[in-house]
Amino acid sequence: MLDFGLTTEDFLRQHFDRRPMLRRAALRSQGFSWRDLDELLHHIEPTEAGFQLFRNGLVPQSQYTHDSTTMGLQRRRLHKRRFWALLHSGASVVLNRLEHQSGAMQRLCSEVARFCSLPTSGNAYLSIGGDGSFGRHWDTHDVFAVQLIGFKRWRVFEPTQVLPLAEQTSQRSPLPCPAQPVMDVMLQAGDLLYLPRGWWHEVLPGDQPSFHFSIGSYAPTVQDYIVWASQQLLPGYAGARRSLLPGSSLEDVAASLQALQSQATKPEWLARFHAERGERENRCTDFDTELFLARDAASLLNASARIALIAGVQTTGDRLELLGNGSKLRIDGIARAIVMLLSNRSSCSLQELGEQLPQVPTGALHSVLLELATHELISIERS
Questions:
Q1: 272 inside domain
Q2: Residue 2 domain-assigned?
Q3: pTM of the predicted model, to two decimals?
Q4: Residue 260's domain spans which residues?
Q5: For residue 146, is it within any domain?
Q6: Does one domain contain both 23 and 140?
């Protein structure tokens, strides 16, 4: 769906944690339409957590929703006249965690997750005019903003807090946003903008309706790793379990830190940390009921079907394991060959995969792909 314009390795070296990246016309698939948005607004129940309006702060839902009862079932619905009026007056709609409501948004999140090998989630923003939702601020996670309908102006400023942690928000910053932006761009439909955490920005709607999807990616920090390593190691070290009273000697503290350092700086401990995180990570694929309920599912796979690896990969010696959705699956043979090919690209067609693995019979290739897909370790997107 997305053409990032560079490899993951180049992105991590040139932009990740370092500087913004603008990619024009990054969205390769058919664009998101007003009709698609209408479907979302019809089906999404405007709950407090998932559906918000902002205009000089959070707008109470009582101003644009009402409770209705149909056949004894109560449901909150949008009061359309009030809703449209608030948007025309400059309010912005925020749809939180929209990947849980929309297959298209879930696919965009998965695409970014595959590209940067990090968990993702996304919020969408609908507006027409006004001053934007949040003014000048920074985010404590990295952002991949995809403009889907219309256009929005993004003004980006140098960070005053480099790589902030979750609690280090711009609202608590002792330093104001710099006066002059380092980037002032108009995102058109299909454009992608990456911002590392900590970069100040403001998003300004134009005088036409606009809809964009902001995908957050969440990388573990060095602090996260040290906390995890402490929890793994120190409970088994007697010195770390000693009571620490006012005036106590710091010898046990120093010894505990030394013991922690001696283990946490070993590569195998870092690999274990990433493996545990990868195993817990939820990785979702689209439903394809026709394919997976067919008696001869392989017959429904055509040469243009897109195959992508969505699982985490752990290599230990000559052992290769796929991680995700609470499971760890060791693979070899045909599955291993497929994963090694997919791990070097965002996706490929079934035809390309077959050409790269000419020694694998077509039936066996299809069978293994379907098995991996049922575990949600790869995705199969049919045209």
A1: no
A2: no
A3: 0.89
A4: 222-241+252-265
A5: yes
A6: yes
Count how many domains the chain has.
Answer: 3
Predicted confidence pLDDT, tens digits, the chain (383 residues): 899 999 999 999 999 999 999 999 999 877 789 999 999 999 999 998 999 999 989 999 999 999 988 788 888 999 999 999 999 999 999 999 999 999 899 989 988 998 998 999 999 999 998 766 689 999 999 999 999 999 999 999 999 999 999 999 999 999 999 999 999 999 999 999 999 999 999 999 888 999 999 999 999 999 999 999 999 999 999 999 999 999 999 999 999 999 999 999 999 999 999 988 888 887 778 889 999 999 999 999 999 999 999 888 888 778 888 888 777 889 999 999 999 999 877 789 999 999 999 999 999 999 999 999 998 889 999 97
User: Residue 336 domain-assigned?
Assistant: yes
3-class SS letters over the chain: CECCCCCHHHHHHHCCCCCCEEECCCECCCCCCHHHHHHHHHHCCCCCCCEEEECCCECCHHHCEEEEEECCEEEEEECHHHHHHHHHCCCEEEECCHHHCCHHHHHHHHHHHHHHCCCEEEEEEEECCCCCCCCCECCCCEEEEEEEECEEEEEEECCCCCCCCCCCCHHHCCCCCCCCCCEEEEEECCCEEEECCCCEEEEEECCCCEEEEEEEECCCCHHHHHHHHHHHHHHHCHHHHCCCCCCCCCHHHHHHHHHHHHHHCCHHHHHHHHHHHHHHCCCCCCCCHHHHHCCCHHHHCCCCCEEEECCEEEEECCEEEEEECCEEEEECHHHHHHHHHHCCCCCEEHHHHHHHCCCCCHHHHHHHHHHHHHCCCEEEECC
